[in-house]
Design brief:
With about 475 residues, the protein is α/β, with parallel strands linked by helices. The chain has helices at about 25-35, 55-65, 80-90, 125-135, 150-160, 180-190, 240-250, 275-290, 305-310, 325-335, 355-370, 375-380, 400-410, 455-465; strands at about 15, 45-50, 70-75, 95, 105-115, 115-120, 145-150, 170-175, 205, 215-220, 255, 265, 275, 295-300, 315-320, 340, 345-350, 355, 385, 390-395, 415-420, 425, 430-435, 445-450. Strands 1, 2, 3, 4, 5, 6 and 7 form a 7-stranded mixed sheet that branches. The protein is globular.
Amino acid sequence: MADLSGIVKAYDIRGVVGEQIDAPLVREFGAAFALLIKPDSPRVVIGHDMRDSSPGLAAAFADGVTSQGLDVVLIGLASTDELYFASGSMNLPGAMFTASHNPAKYNGIKLCRAGASPVGQDTGLAELRATVEDGVPAFSGQPGTVTEQDVLTDYAAYLRNLVDLSGGRRLKIVVDAGNGMGGHTVPTVFGMSAASRSDSGEGGGERRAGLPFDIVPMYFELDGNFPNHEANPLDPANIVDLQAKVREVGADAGVAFDGDADRCFVVDERGEPVSPSAITALVAVRELAKEPGSTIIHNLITSHGVPEIVKEHGGKPVRTRVGHSFIKAEMATTGAIFGGEHSAHYYFRDFWRADTGMLAAMHVLAALGEQDRPLSELTAEYSRYAASGEINSTVDDQIARLMAVKDSFGTRPGVTFDEMDGLTVQLPDGGWFNLRPSNTEPLLRLNVEAADAAAVKALTDEVLAIVRG
């Protein structure tokens, strides 16, 4: 078997279909996963997104699992957080076939243990890779069986039990599904009729009985070729249509989902982006109101405003490395009720510590509807500093460039460092930046925060001059 290091990433398995990933290889991964989880579970739940290659790859994985004597529950088309719901509610390990926001030629597998517990490099992925590279041992016993189960309705009902959407003022909300799985889950969560799900371009939308929302749908047709734009709302180019539609129809807010709908991105009534850090703080405050004094997780790239706001509301902020496996592990250790990342991943204890963009979006809409101010004014409470967003630089030697930055700033009075994840530099005027290597590409990722936009630009320019010099 060829070296699989190119497709086994830090948190999932991902590559170009037909070149790096195909059905025979995926079958081997299914068999290896069955061996990994066999001591703990007799069944595996499998879902897939709308990519052309996903149903076939999911079937191949299921064949590999059953070849080792374990049973399979197929839930069919699903968002990643819907798969996590199935894993959590059934207490089964799971496999989700998706490449998230990557282009159509890609596909991959997100894996979890029972209860939606993460599988990453240190919690099973490295072992899976080794098993497949060495050759999966044959199983001589009876093969497992395959059953099908639709969990979409139960998933929607579970989310609506966590956030009450029925009591607020009536809102008009534009939702851009990006031709991804949000087009599958949003209609059921919000109870939209079949007729209202088409992208008519009209401003009327659909109001669900008991829910005060007019939903204006954009790009709800499931299409893994992403004909309208990439399903990555963190790229500003991919929310231009959403911003324009919000302004056109006079909506109260806009929500965009990525390809597998585990992340959400929000724009306000002006069409202006709301930072994921502000969403993290807003949801944290809502969760702390229910359970005062609880722990909130934030990764080291989220705004410093997040831990400040958490403390002001009686919570305990805990800072972690970037990545879902670190967030989920820290939530388990601390008993945290909620966690947020700069990348618009939001994690909830009551959702098996898994990330769900849908639940975060529901919190934002509930908060908006419970008061009379526009979203821009509501979220201004949670936005304290200016930020650069993530800036990538291609470099020949990541470590050498990191050390050059550290050496430059290390001579300055009052500057402090930490290396929890890459290099974080804290300046005496309150500005700070993080510079960290990509796990999969020859990139350094820079995030800068400071008091205002001018200070952010000056600090960004200074760091990039060293990184790219």
